[in-house]
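In this section we walk through a basic example: taking a raw amino acid sequence and producing a predicted 3D structure, encoded as discrete structure tokens. The instruction is simple. Fold the sequence below.
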Amino acid sequence: MSRPSREDSAPVVNRIEQARDAKSLSRGELADLVGVHYQTMGYLERGEYNPSLELALKIARVLELPLEEIFWLQDGGLTLKTEGETS
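The resulting token sequence is shown next.
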């Protein structure tokens, strides 16, 4: 089984910049708090780079928001079935 290519995966959308602005943090301040270079934060905000799970969790913690309020899949992601639901 091969790994899906970047073209096969749904784009990750984020609202890091809006959440950062709401906390009155500069790009550099947020980057320092999560341990990355300020340019990396710029790449993330512009959607040029997807964060690792660890980095996404650190960003959510610093911004004091649930992960899904900062990052989501553009196509809406997977639909999970609830218990007892059939296809």
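Looking at the output, two observations stand out. Helices lie at 16-22, 27-34, 38-45, 53-63, 67-70. The longest helix spans residues 53-63. In the next section we compare this with other chains.
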